[in-house]
Amino acid sequence: MFKSVAMLPGMASDLLNVLVDKAFRREAPSRSEALELLSDSHDVLQVVAAGSRVRQAHFGKRVKLNTIVNMKSGLCPEDCGYCSQRLGSASDVLKYSWIAPEKAAEVARQAVEAGVKRVCLVASGRGPGDRDITRIEHTIAAIKQDSPLVEVCVCLGLLADGQAERLAAAGAHAYSHNLNTSESRYAEICSTHTFADRTDTLRRATAAGLSPCSGAIFGMGETDDDIVDLATDLRALDPDSVPVNFLIPFEGTPLGGRWELTPDRCLRILALMRFYFPDVEVRLAGGREIHLRGLQPMALHLANSIFLGDYLTSEGQPGADDRQMIADAGFVIEGADEQSLPEARHDLVAIRRRGAGTNLPANA
Ligand code: SF4
């Protein structure tokens, strides 16, 4: 017996057409639309194809490369349940105190030579002290001396008064602070700080002129409703970039051994994030290799940005394999001189950070 035309996998459903149209108007999905997308009532190929229309309209075939420099690893006093660096973690990860600015600049330079456009300086801990901000100021200066065009994103935890302003003045482009999971279940994954602490820091960073970067970790027991709540709260913060992590279940952490994601589920989550953030950098982040596995190239049709190299405490796919994957899937690496975000998301007033009064050449 033949399937009806409406059921054929080659046909986009009404829901998918509605979501694409809404995304082009920068409207978020309704809750019921989002929940339907996450369910298995639509063929995943069609879900990816629909999200891809939005991705390509705003970002073409470009893939932005980012890399992480772990400035200080392990021994954190916070207790985030997903984190191998948490208080009491029995994970056998690298533990070290602050690396020197020159060492960070060397790592950054190698990454830039490999095509990376954004360097993310990350340190474990609840938040930085003022001496830590000074270290990061020196590190940004060292990186910019070698690679003036690279975007530097800083991720140091909760910010206190004046710290975001210092980072912006030092030349940081962005501040990253993930919401991680929905507000209603935040206390289940962390007891030492709150969801509100996190949104407060992101607002401080935005107010200081830093480009806000905030995303999530999926695969921690969240329901579809939690995912929709999280996407809604993230959208209210109006981030410029949204990292999408899939739990790396480190042994020695409370979430060790938790393997609840499938490639199909990851693709639906990524598509949902694309519909919530149509013209925002959706970044494929930690856990992509182990959860998407052979379907990683399909994720490039939804995300326009990926991390290259290793993560904070675990190793990623070799950079050469990532570059080959991007080329094989028909995408191109975004150049340093190309604008990442669509024009509509750009503030037309760009604060001068080159020429007189700086160490950078003037815009001659
Ligand atoms: S996520 Fe950050 S704050 Fe939480 S335990 Fe890990 S390093 Fe500490």
TrEMBL record:
Keyword 4Fe-4S part of the UniProt annotation: yes
One Gene Ontology term from the biological process aspect of the record: biotin biosynthetic process
Pathway per the UniProt entry: Cofactor biosynthesis; biotin biosynthesis; biotin from 7,8-diaminononanoate: step 2/2
Membrane-spanning residues: none
Keywords, comma-separated and alphabetical: 2Fe-2S, 4Fe-4S, Biotin biosynthesis, Iron, Iron-sulfur, Metal-binding, S-adenosyl-L-methionine, Transferase
Stored PROSITE patterns: RADICAL_SAM (PS51918)
Cofactor: [2Fe-2S] cluster; [4Fe-4S] cluster
All copies of domain Radical SAM core, residue ranges: 58-288
Enzyme class at the top of the EC tree: transferase
Binding site residues for [4Fe-4S] cluster: 76, 80, 83
Gene3D superfamilies according to UniProt: Aldolase class I
Identification of the protein by name: Biotin synthase
Annotated source species: Nocardia arthritidis
